[in-house]
Each structure stands twice: as C-alpha cells, then as structure tokens.
C-alpha cells in the first residue's frame, strides 16, 4: 500500500520472493544505474564496521527512522525503504491517545557515543599476539566493542540511549572462514579467553550480554565476514552457506539463481543464518518451507573440543538422538556455528496477499483453528487483535487523492454500518499465498470460504500488506516511542489451540493490571496476534508498551511486568518462547519449572 | 497464606467499616407498585449480552465437559449416549433457574409490603453496593452471604434489584421444590436447585458443576450460595462446605477467567424470624417440612416486631490475589481442561483456607445490637439480675467488645439503660422485667401439674433462643476466651504450657467455632494481644499471668464459653458411663439427650445448652476427628466404637483435672 498502484503487486512475481519487497526499495523499480545498483546491493551486506551504516543505540540503519516533523506529523526518513519520505497523518493522534504521550515531552537519547566513558579493554596479551600472527582481523576500538555488547532487549537499548555501558567485550575478531574460527577457538582455549559469537546482533533474549563478573578477557566473535554461499546443489535442492550471512542477502543471492530458502523471520534484514540455528528460529512462511529445524540438513559447529558435524547430508537418520537438536537453541553456549547446509526451493511463480475482517477475535481464532485443522494454511496467516488493527490503521500513509479516501470511507461504512461490525471489536487476519498461480487462486478460495463460515469478510490485499509491513517497522517505531517516554517490547509464546483465547485475554489483562499496580500513569498498550498455526496449537505474539513518565525506574517496572506476563503465560499453558530463544530466561531460576537444570549445566564459555 | 493476610491488621478494633443507610425509609414514602415496576437496567459484566436461561441450558448440554462424561458413562454402562444425554437434560430441567423479571417484580412488591410490616429498618452499607457495582463489571462475581434465616434467600436479590444491579443466581436446596408454587416462584426469581447429596452420581456432578461454571465463565449473573450449606440454627457461623466454592474457583485455576471476585455478605437480624422454631428443632422437634400451607400459617409472625436487619456487603476479595504464590496453575496444563479430575492437595487446602477466610470475613462484619450483650449477661445469671446492675454490666461489656473489634450498632448518645430497655422490649418472649429485676422468661406454671420434662423443655427453648443471640458475639471473644480457659486449665502459668492448652482447646472446639486450620500461632498472638491491651493479662518473659484488674474479665470470658466446655464433658461422660463399647450412630443424639435430661432433673447439671443437638453433633464430629470414636459400617447400620481411655483423657483435660498428658501434647 505504500505503492499506490496496487495492481503491480498482484501480477506474477519473479524478481524477489522475500517479504522484504514490501519494505525495501527494489532497484528494478527505481531505474537506477548499474553502479548505484551495485552500491545499493552492497548495503544489504553488512560492512565490518557496521556502525557506519547502522545505529549504535537503536534499531536498523542510521538514515532510517520515524520522527515527528515540525508540523507534528509522523514521517519516515531516508531513501532505503519504500516508506522513506512518507507522511503518516494519523500516527500522532493514535500515539498520543494510546499512550497519553505528548510531543512536548521528549526523552531524547544521548547524542553521540562518548568513547572516553568506556573502560579500556582487559586484554589477554598472549591471545592477542597469536591472533595477530595469524592475520585474523580484529579491533580494540570502543565503538566496535560497544556495538557488540548488546542485543535488542529493551533494557539494553534503554541503557545505550542513556549512555550507560555495562561489561563490554574486550575485543572483536572477524574470522573469514570456518578454519579461522577453529583457530580462534583453539587460541581461546589455550589462553583462557572467553568467546561470545556475534551474528546479526538482533537477539532479544539477553544472550549477547557479557556476564558482569567475568574476569577473563571477552572476545566477541563477529561472523559477518563469513557471508558466502559456498555451493548450490540443484539435484538435491540444498545450498551450503556460511553462517554469518544475513537473511536478506542469502535470499537475494539465491533468488539470482532462481531459488529461495523461504525462511523469513521478522528480523531477516539483519539476523544471520548462524543466529537462526542457534536460537531455533521460525520463519513467517513456515507453513510452506518449515521452521529452521525442518530446513537444516547439515550443521558444522566449532566447539572447544573440536568440530561437530554429521558425516552425511541426508534427510533423516536414526542413530541415536539428533545432534542438530542440541545445537539448535544452544544460543552460542556450546560452540560457534560456521557452516550450514539448507534446503532450498525454486522461486514461487506467484504471490498474493489477502486479508479478512472478523467481527471479533474469538471468531478469528476459530477460523484459524479450522484452517489448521484442514491443513490448508497459506504461506502465512496471522490474526491481529483489535488494538493491533487500530495500530496498523494509524500507520496508513497520506492518501494521494480524494478518490482513495472516499473509497476508504465507503469500505468502512460497508463493514461497520452494513455488516454491523463493531470497530472496537473487529479484528483482521492477514494472508500470504505463494505457489503456482492456479493453485494459489484455488487455495485462496478455499481459505476465504472457511473464513466466511466464521463471519469473515475479505478485506483486500492492501490491508494484508500493511499487516506484514507493521512487523518490519515495529522496531523502528519502538525507537520513536523511546523519544517520547514510551517503552515497549514484544514477546511470544506457543500455546495449544484450546487455550489460545484464554491465554490472550489473561495475559493482556495481567499486563494492564500489573502496570496499574506499579504506578504506570496511563493504561498500557497490551495487544497480541496469532502469527503461526500448527496442528496442535498456535504461536501468539504480544506487543506491550507504556508511557513511563513519572516512574523512577521504568526498565525495572517494565521487567517486573514482563516477568508477570510470562508467569501468566506459563499458568495458562503457554511456553516461554516459540522462536526468540530464551535460555537466559530459563537461567533466571528454576521457578520457571522447565529444564533449567540441564541447560545451566550446558552453559559453556570457553 | 490466607490466614496470615487475615491477621495483617493487628488491632481488630481499628478495622474501618462503612456507614449504613436505611433503605426502607424511602420505600415507606413511595409507591410499592411504582417500585416494583421501576425501570430495571443493571450493568453487566464487561458488557456481556444478557442471555436467556434456556441458552445456558443448551450451552451446558453441548459442553465438552458434559459430553465427555456422557460418553464415558455410556462406555461403562453400555447404555446409549442418547439415553444418558436425556438423563442429563432431566437433571438440568430439575436444577436450572428460570429468572423471569415479572416474578422478580412480584416478589419485590410483596417483600416490600412484608418488610415494612416486619422490620423497623433494613440498613445497608451503600459503599458496599457501590463496590459491588464496580466489581460486577470487572470480573465474574460470587456472592457469599451468611445464612441465618430463610430471609437471606430473598434479601440479597431484593437489595440488588433495588439498587439496579444484576440479579444473582442462587444455589438452593432441593427441599424447596417440595413447596407448591413457591419452589417454582423461587426458580423464576433466580434460584437453582441442587440435591443435598449426590456423592457418587457422576452425571449429576457433571451437570451441576458445568451449570455453575457456565454461568460464571460467561459472567451472565453473579452466583450466590451459602458457604455454610444450611441455615445456622444457633446463629454461630457453621464450618464452611467447600464443594460449590471449589467448583466456582475452577474456571480461574484453568485460566478460563482472569479472576473471580468473592464478596462476603453479612446479614444480621436483630430478631430472627425462625427463633423459636430453631430452638425447638435443636431440642429434637424435627424441622417442619417446607410447605406452602406452613408458610401461610407463618403469617401470624407478621404481627410482631422484628427490629432491624443489617446487611453489610464486604470488600470483594480477588481469588487471583489469594492464589498468588499458593497455587501453581500450570498443573492444569497437562490434561485437556474438559476432563475433570480430583484437585491436588495444594488446591484442596487452598479452597478450604479461602472458605474459612470468607466465613471469618462474614463474621467480622456482622452487626451486633446491644441486645446480644444483654443476652450474654443474662445467660450467665439464669436467676435474674437487678436492672441497674444489668445496665452497668452491659456498658462494661460494650467497652470490652469494642476493644476486641466487635461491630456494635450502639450509637454513643444512647445510654446503657435505654439500649437494654429497647432490647428487652423487642424480646418479650425471652425476658421478663419485673420490679427492677430482669430474668429469662419461663412459662408460668399452667393449670394442672405437668411432667417435669415438659417444664424443662419449655425452659430450654428460652435458654437456647437466648443463647442464639449470645452466639452472635462469640466470635469476638473466642480467641481471648480460649486463652482465658487455657490459663484455667493449664498446669502452670508457663507460656508453653498455656500455649499447648490453648492449642488443645482450639483443636477440640474446631468443629464448634470458625477457627482457621493451621492458624494456631496467629490466634494465640491475637488472643495475647487483645488481653494485654485491656490489661487483663501480663506477658512476662516465661509466663502469662492474670492481672488483679483482669480477673473479672477473664472469668467472664471463661463463663461465656462454659456451656460448651460442659457440653463436651457431659457427652464424654455419657460415652464413658452409659455406653458399653459401641452404639449405633442413630441413637447417639437421643442417648446423650436423655442422659443430660436425667442429670439436669437430678440437679447435678445446671446447663441446659447441653440439650442442643447442634452441640451434640459437633462433639461427635470432634471426637471422630480426634480418634476417640470410630465409625464402622455394617450394611445400613453405622456404629460408633468408643475408645474409652481417649475419651476419659479428653474429659479430664477439659476439666483441668489432669495435667496435659504427653500423648495429648503430641497432637499440638
């Protein structure tokens, strides 16, 4: 919908299979010259000095951010995304009324990174000498160390914005290949240094935090230079890839050969293959392509006691427990994932978005359950609750013509007055179909027919696209919120079907109640969506944000509320995490009642 | 812990309570008809759309829970599911309410008329109503009124209707259905009917629990039931029954609702309608069967004055906050929620604790009129007292009760003699004031000589009626009195001796009074605190000693509970002396009664309260619990086997004759 001629999106799709086309300016559309195109491409592949293009204290690229301009209208800067330069007229009202925030009350971050405030590195000289002799690139610069000392948890970003730094890695190394990693790990063992693998830095499970009491020298092992596709096997439909490759780059390179992995986690702009493996990631289109555990054929991991890998690249084996399942989800505690063989698929012929409006969330969930039961889920099907629908609505860019706004009014009239939907209860499911054109159309009809049984009305491709776009910009929006005393975060869970509704209602209510009890002045935004369907249950994603004006320690309040919300999730039959990972959560103590014991033992630093 | 939060307020006298307003006043000045036909638009839970009672029935029948049980039963018995489903429907038809606004309006009209004649005032705490209005919208609601009279059924609904609040669905015993019309009328005003016992009937249990949960989950109406299970004939709170409460909590444990608010409601009557009826029933005249003609005959009560009713709607208690840290709800995650299973130990203990807590909350907000203090004093002086002394004594007791946190309705400007006089005026059938003396009323000797048993019986009716008023204030004095008694009984004044005696008495009497399980220490602390506060005792390093000033207080407290102590001893004596080794359970009450009558007539025993079957049953339960009696079943016949030495020990310990023995101590 950021492209006003929607028709262009309904046609056969060949250039780019990934969902990012929604967001990123595609060079083919903008008639750039060959050279600028080359330059543009380079941007998707992260440089060694990431801070050159990325924010050191927020999400994403330095040139891309939301702000309220002088007229008080929300605007997105930069030319990197399709949103660049667009105005969002209703965002301000939504923002102010949802959070009780005010554009006069700003909470800007500290302007620049003050290198002098940073403690000098605790160097392990013998390690450094040996590393130098091997010629592996490294850095002791404060900026590099700060950049790799955190993931994107709220408390981490909040501290950066206030210019507070905890324990930092003492140096950064950039291996170029598997063998470099083997050498680095050997050196670390030999000289008793501590390694923390670093991929895209998008962790939201505190896994990148350096233990404050760590006395050894901490080395951040940045895999970003290991970003090549080593080979593609068209007969078996597999590709062997270095683990440092960033999601969008992997997809772009495979697309050039006519393939894709179809693995598209929301963080795919920045997260890496190694990170996906280490956190048991899940992609938006898992209904067609599967989650990371379904996609992986072979993993090479360097551990302090040698390299772990299988001796064959086969679809399945039955010789004891699967070693891959120890590696996936280990979050860097067992070793460094260096190379992965992944399944690939030919690019789909056709892609189509869609959306369905339901009179209420209950009906929507019932519909998703039926779709899962009939095993006819499209590549992606997501159900936003009412608050999130309103949120998405606030992100509608300025319409160019009176005609479009007239059409919008007409649509609204039809749904609310003619069909009797309550705007404060209705909710929207967004859909993405993929495959042969004919099959997609057939599939589409099947899904819409099911939806109709649950009172769902087809609501067009436009709404569908906006729904997916929200996923990608949410992290940029969080930075905007933080400029105005609003902090927030998302967390997710996996839950059996029969408990979805109860869990959603109870967790949202618990958040609201806990905020009130902890002195938050305005009701928080507490919203959820069902993002994945399975045979036995669903994945539910919560967004939670509040205005922290008047609170002495907002992050502490935030953490208490989040803790309560997770407790509520567990009490309602949900899991601690579906795909973010969460060994740090397990470590919080055995009170979570999970396999903390096993993993605590497995937490190895070398 | 529930019991801990209960005592978080160290000084009960400081408890803050709402003010009352008389709702009858407005009714007296306006048209009843207009009132009955007023616009009734209650606020509902989270804007839920009201739903017809028949819809609820359908939902219950189609629920997974019920279908599961039906299938299971069909597999076990080989009967077709349709047949069992039919039985379920029949159960539901018998049970379900049919709330009908017209009937409610009719009741409102009639009650208005009746209330205005019967009562001087019906006083309600308006703040409580306000809180209720708030609570109804937020979470499903459970109303838990105390139960001292049939009137309780009607009065809560009447008040909610008056205040334009959602009418509750009320759990009632099946016996009401025996009354022609009235049963159905009650049904149409929101009552649903449950059988008194259905222990083994899985289908009945499934229908019943699903019915309650469906109403609760969807928040269609507040659920009202009586924790005590039945009307208290003695005006003491009864040991709570936990069955319905645990059903009402299940939707929360299983995550089906975010929270459940429980509202304790204390309804206190200055004069209970059933007063004399209760006393007769306790003496062994069986309760008249509920019948419409009986109700009509009862009209004569309309000619008397029943004083005031006080209704106190307590703070809504959040189940979620009570369960926080005590119940691990994930235990319900490992099985489909429609399969019901026995709740775990932690849940059972929790439900029981909550039940006690709620009854305690009811007790604490019971309004006490000066008359209950008068009755307390008169019972200790059965031969009558000087009116002047009575007034002095009542004023003194008022001070003590207030120090202990009693909720007394005794405005400062009313003098003691006036308060006493108004109490006496309201109870002419129980007390006589002649020539400056006040005494309990005894029937004048009628023409012709009557059997001494009959005289005794008549006198006992008066004593038990009077006791029912004294009983209303017992909960205020219970803990200090147990301490006072323990100090009498204990072999030495050492703290641990007193404490172990206190614990022992508390244990013995835990079927008689509301004593939260596991709260010995808190109770002891509270008792010590209160008695120290009124300088009746001094707590030294090692000992607890009575002060000179405090002796009258302590002996008064002991005397207040003396009838219970004696009652327990008499029953023990009976079991030791009159029973060989065992007796049929059925003949227990009659046996104790005739033994007691004999002793009273022979002048050995002066305490008539021993004749109360309530007390006798409580002793039975206590002795069974303590292992001094054992039940054995042979077919239909239940026999009680007597452990004489254990009973002897209990009797002696209660009498303070034997220093507390080791095996007894081991129980503490």
TrEMBL record, chain A:
It catalyses: a long chain fatty alcohol + a 1-acylglycerone 3-phosphate = a 1-O-alkylglycerone 3-phosphate + a long-chain fatty acid + H(+). It is found in: Peroxisome. It is an enzyme of class 2 (transferase). FAD binds at residues 197-203, 266-272, 279-282, 331-337. Pathway: Lipid metabolism; Glycerolipid metabolism; ether lipid biosynthesis. Its main location: other. SUPFAM superfamilies: FAD-binding/transporter-associated domain-like, FAD-linked oxidases, C-terminal domain. Gene3D superfamilies: 3.30.160.650, 3.30.300.330, 3.30.465.10, 3.30.70.3450, Uridine Diphospho-n-acetylenolpyruvylglucosamine Reductase, domain 2. InterPro entries: Alkyl-DHAP_Synthase, FAD-bd_oxidored_4_C, FAD-bd_PCMH, FAD-bd_PCMH-like_sf, FAD-bd_PCMH_sub1, FAD-bd_PCMH_sub2, FAD-linked_Oxase-like_C, Oxid_FAD_bind_N. Its EC number is 2.5.1.26. Keywords: FAD, Flavoprotein, Lipid biosynthesis, Lipid metabolism, Peroxisome, Transferase. Its cofactor is FAD. GO terms for biological process: ether lipid biosynthetic process. Residues 165-347 form the FAD-binding PCMH-type domain. Substrate binds at residue 478. The active site is at residue 541. GO terms for cellular component: peroxisome. One of its GO terms (molecular function) is alkylglycerone-phosphate synthase activity. It comes from the Eukaryota. Belongs to the FAD-binding oxidoreductase/transferase type 4 family. Homodimer. Catalyzes the exchange of an acyl for a long-chain alkyl group and the formation of the ether bond in the biosynthesis of ether phospholipids. This is Alkylglycerone-phosphate synthase. It comes from Paramormyrops kingsleyae. The lineage of its organism: Eukaryota, Metazoa, Chordata, Craniata, Vertebrata.
